[in-house]
Amino acid sequence: MDSLSNNVPLLPNNNLKIIPISNKENSEAISNAVTIQSGYKSYGNFSVLRDLNLNVPVGAIYGLLGPSGCGKTTILRSVVGRIFLDSGELLVFGKEPGTKGHEVPGSLVGYMPQEVALYNEFTISETLIYFGFLHNMEKENVTKRRNFLIDFLDLPSKNRLVKNLSGGQKRRVSMSIALLQEPKLLILDEPTVGVDPILREKIWGHLIDISKTSQTTIIITTHYIEEARKADKVGLIRNGRILAENSPEYLLHAYSEISLENVFLKLCIKDESVPVPRAKKSNGLRNPLCEPQINEGIDNLNDEIPNVQIKKGKKSFVARIKKSVSKTFRVPKFNNFLGALFKDSILIRRNWGFLIFQFLIPVIQISLFCLCIGREPYDLNFGIVNNETDFNDSSHFAAKMYVDEMSNKTFKKHYLNWSDAYTQTKSGKLWGFIDLSENFTQDTFQKFNPIRPKNSSIAGSNVNVYLDATNQQIALITQARITDAYQSFLISFLPYLPFEIDPNLLKSPIILQTPIYGQSNPQFINFMAPGIMATIIFTLTIGMTGLMFVIEKKEGLMDRSWAAGMNAVEVLSAHISSKIVIMTVQITILILISTLVFGVKMNGSVFVAALLLLLQGFCGMSYGLACSSIAKDETEVMQITIGSVFPVMLLSSIIWPIEGMPGWVRFITNFSPLTHSAEALRSVFSRGWGLETLTVWFGTLTVLVWSILFNLIALLFFNIDN
């Protein structure tokens, strides 16, 4: 035992007695590619990393071994800068990941996550070209590396679509991405799962070769514990702590075992026997190899880092926000923008059916709106109770004359007695009925008698209307058309009077002059159409963006791109650039169909209207991005977007004027992303106003402000770890 260094844990006589070890000298620590000191990370009440100490020398292959759910993936994601530790220090090549000017995340690191994380619509070649953009590689270099990796990893044709590959082939494509730019730090999460044994040996041979010849540092996790014997150094992790860390041969000799699995088992048994202070809640499940335990007050099982008390304090939320802001406002890289644009263009090209559907949706929506909304009801079943039945008598003709004046387009007339008309209206078969007295003609004569009309004659000349007023629009239209019919009837009836009356006396004294804006006979469709068009563009772009980004995030695609150096600004910029053509076509369709086909009045500049709609689409994309940054999966993003669009629409005076809302609701409407832009668009359509008017430019300004706000929310949340 004396022949062994003091820097290893020993197991004499199968009794796990730990001999304390000392730190490496500072000069040795400088040679580490990755260093974690007292790392602590939790998700809610569940601690994932506990007092973690880890050292990976430059140019070494480091095997990270441990059961599922004990922190391996969290360590790897921390190293590539995707999540922050709550406390402790993490350095990669001497700098914290995400530090300005540091290429981690970026080209210094090649990352193969546990998920496949590949775009199914890409070919193998396109996949490597995309990541070549992110690493700013020359085209010739990408081609050279692609040919080598396809041959080395035994991949099929470079033009084979990823979705047509087997599971094992997909994992090998995933590995080729990590190897593409020949990074100085290679992080591989379960790279040999599902790989043929011969190819597994070939992969390990290549990893050993690049670690020796190129000083590439490799961190690898694997389910095959004995496979890790090929590593220069292994770290055995349990419950978020490194139990032991040294070369495989050294650990086997120190613990007098022939397999690393037995070494790990002994360490776990000893760890299980240590009393546990209850500092954090567990997940409620007991697993002898993975139940949270904290070794405090005993000799450390790590052969390089001395025992350090667990730091439970978290970095403040403000500090995390500051880090997020610094990442958010990093200067975008043009090569990353081109890569994101390349990705979006391929996804569009490979989904022609969906692209056509995106163009058809606004056609269907605006057509249905124009066909279904704002048109006057017609063919209304309406009862006529005419008690003046002797039509051929010259003294009993007025009732028939009046009924004839009632529009045959609006009313489908049913001649009934009073009892039947009432019963059918009560049962919902009629929208109402009119009741004309048996002396309607004579009473109407007496009504206009200039000497002294009788009160009974005035009552007998009335048109009694009984309505089913449950539908406001039908009730209002019915009243208006009955009134119009009576006005026309009076003009036709005057020549039959035995005395002269000036027809002008029968006209309303209220004279409606030519409207300053709009039409003499306003159409509700002209009021709603601009707001509906803004809503269509807003909701379409929310769907295009929100669902796409949350799927990328859920499947690990976004994590992988960002580990390669992409940031949210570049992603959003490319998304807007690729979708602007689609939005332009959609907006053109909306304007042409609404104005040329359905006659919606466009009194202002088409270009100003198109600009407002384009900005509204940009706002929708920004809102979709914000929703996807908060949501965890497709269900959540759909609930957020669908649940919020309808209230926004109601509050934006699109369906009903703001002037008809309570005062406190009017105040709230000012905080809807559609309110002022919809009013600006309505002013362009109906009033012919331009950007020189307050309403239009203020609406333009507010939609820009909302877009910026949504983008900031998205950028911050994308850069804050969950």
From TrEMBL:
Membrane topology summary: Multi-pass membrane protein
Chief place where the protein resides: membrane
Swiss-Prot/TrEMBL keywords: ATP-binding, Membrane, Nucleotide-binding, Transmembrane, Transmembrane helix
Subcellular location: Membrane
GO cellular component, one term: ATP-binding cassette (ABC) transporter complex
A Pfam family it matches: ABC2_membrane_3
Residue ranges of the TM segments: 527-551, 580-600, 606-625, 637-658, 696-718
Signal peptide: none
Chain ranges of the ABC transmembrane type-2 domain: 494-721
Annotated ranges, domain ABC transporter: 34-264
Molecular function in Gene Ontology: ABC-type transporter activity; ATP binding; ATP hydrolysis activity
PANTHER family attached to this UniProt entry: ABC TRANSPORTER G FAMILY MEMBER 20 ISOFORM X1, ATP-BINDING CASSETTE, SUB-FAMILY H, MEMBER 1
Protein name, entry field: ATP-binding cassette transporter subfamily H member-like1 protein
Record organism: Brachionus koreanus
